[in-house]
Amino acid sequence: MKNVRLEDIAKRLNITKVSVSKALRDYPDISVETRRKVKKLAREMGYRPNLQARSLASSKTKTVGVIVPKIAHYFFSPTIEGIYRAAQESGYKVIIGISLEDETLQKEHIESMMDMRVDGLLVSLSEKTTDTEVFEDVRRMGIDLVFFDRGISGSGFSYVRVEDRKAAKKAVSHLTGLGYCDIAHISGYQTSEIGKDRKLGFLDAMEEAGLDVPDSSFVESGFGEEDGYFAMEKLLDQRELPEALFAVTFPVGLGVLQFMQQNNIDPARVQILTFGGSNFNWALKSPFLCSHQPTIDLGKRAFSQLLEEMKSDKEQKPKLVEIPAGEIEEDPSPSYTRSG
User: What is the mean pLDDT of residues 84-105?
Assistant: First the structure.
């Protein structure tokens, strides 16, 4: 006989697994009628609670859940490494969930990790997240949560991020300092804080340099290579090739480069500046200028903030922790010395 799971009950009643779990435990924020329906259906379906999991509910599991949009990524891979290092040093295990930039999948991962009774959650939002109700479920369940890189300021949860606006301004000011005046920008979605803040940093630098930016020099896009490819196509439908281009992420810059190569545009004609970099930038025919992000440090700092909140017996006031970005990389060529 197949074991009946919480999700089986949830599907029959068209409610979330979290709601089913809370109804079975008589949480007061679940209506009496819903609790009655859940318990009745659970009996009919032969549901039996996982006693091991139930025992874990009253103790610490020494696990944290980490939700990221992607894992094979120039930013998230080393950031996760930073989280792993810090977690291992503190005796915690890490469970990874990958949202694939899908808000629904993101929600499912969070609900699954709540069912697993993780002690805390580290979440970097999918690029178009708009529904925040699942985070209220996290709060009601008493699970500590910290956003990192992509989050929601003023949400009541701590948020660890790079100083996106300041770093973007510093990076674009480097471009204007080199004499570039006609600079276009492929931004992230303006519904995301990092997309919005990096665009504001771009505008701050251009204003400080006394340079106007026409609407035709902006394209709003996502954060991946495919987004960069089609954003560059749209940009050139709007205007001529710019002198320089500020890409919201390194993958977006790669997408721009791919479009130029496939359309016989010499990459040397445009100086590409990216927010973030990679270890193989030096191998590109026309290397980018890169504003490097402190990826491993960001991961470590995000975990340490979560650990501080998980260990506290008192309710913690949410913190906004901003980490400065690194310097602009002008000469990406690695140097090696022979040992021995």
Answer: 95
